[in-house]
Specification:
There is one protein chain. Helices cover about 30% and strands about 30% of the residues. The protein folds into two domains: about 10-130, Response regulator (Rossmann fold, 3-Layer(aba) Sandwich), CATH 3.40.50; about 140-250, OB fold (Dihydrolipoamide Acetyltransferase, E2P) (Beta Barrel), CATH 2.40.50.1020. It has helices at about 20-30, 45-50, 70-75, 95-100, 115-130, 185-195, 235-250; strands at about 10-15, 35-40, 60, 85-90, 105-110, 145-150, 155-160, 160-170, 170-175, 180-185, 200, 205-210, 215-220, 220-225, 230-235. It starts with 9 loop residues before the first strand and ends in a 5-residue tail after the last helix. The protein is an alpha/beta fold. It is elongated and about 70 Å long.
């Protein structure tokens, strides 16, 4: 499907307290023909004054700034009736979880690459274009069922009922609200087959559907997720991938 068009062009605000970084960000945004206007601000307070005048479609903002920083600014904007989309631009990835909580459209790492910035602009346009009627719920037969053996009785578990999956040797254990069910399939195969249904690998032991994550925790740089009563550790190998997935899955108004 082609990317939604932005007929009138976007009006965006680039915010960074460091002049060279601000100038570079403004320059790269200005090179994107989907953007009509690029204004700049040197701190959060100045950005807020400009935003209150109205008319901006998106805010591309650094996080670490003196005074009102990027996260503070995003929290304030959540109170607006029609806030601009927020794209964080940062040299530090440890703020990605907060960006997810604040419904950021994207999280772009410095040094900023033009192609990566263009991707973020596309997400802004995608969010603005969500005016079509909501898609109908998926048909029931799209919810895969898995046959499991329990005490000599075959039961069928719906994929949508799975809270998380745990590796068990060459098998996998499906954890649902009403029990644990061992199936003769590897976690790697389930990861491949269920990725399109929102299941993500967080550890060599666990596969989790994004919809089931109730809370994301960051303790001393180690990430974990809470799924119901279970707290599952995210391996260092999968931490950045999960952060990116969480941020990209967040949309304004979600």
């Amino acid at each position: 499907m082609s990317e939604p068009a932005a007929p009138a062009g976007l009006r965006v605000l680039a915010v960074d307290d460091e002049a060279p970084a601000r100038a570079e960000l403004s320059y790269l945004l200005g090179r994107d023909d989907r953007i009509a206007v690029v204004d700049t601000a040197g701190d959060g307070a100045e950005a807020l004054r400009l935003i209150e005048s109205g008319g901006y479609d998106a805010l591309f903002v650094d996080i670490r700034m003196p005074g009102l920083d990027g996260l503070d600014l995003a929290r304030i904007l959540r109170r607006f009736t029609e806030p601009p989309a927020v794209v964080f631009v940062s040299a530090y990835d440890q703020h990605a979880l907060e960006a997810f909580d604040l419904r950021a459209v994207d999280y772009v790492m410095k040094p900023v690459r033009e192609e990566r910035l263009a991707e973020a602009v596309g997400r802004v346009i995608e969010g603005r274009a969500r005016t079509a009627p909501a898609a109908a719920p998926a048909p029931a037969d799209d919810d895969e069922t898995i046959a499991v053996e329990l005490g000599g009785v075959t039961r069928f578990v719906k994929r949508s009922d799975v809270r998380y999956v745990e590796a068990h040797g060459d098998y996998a254990r499906l954890v649902t609200d009403d029990g644990r069910h061992l199936v003769r399939v590897s976690l790697a195969l389930l990861e491949e087959q269920w990725s399109s249904a929102g299941f993500v690998r967080i550890h060599r032991r666990w596969l989790v559907p994004l919809r089931a994550i109730d809370e994301v925790r960051n303790d001393g740089g180690r990430m974990s997720v809470r799924v119901g009563d279970a707290v599952l550790q995210v391996s260092r190998r999968h931490t950045r991938e999960l952060r990116d997935t969480l941020v990209r899955s967040a949309r304004p108004g979600r």
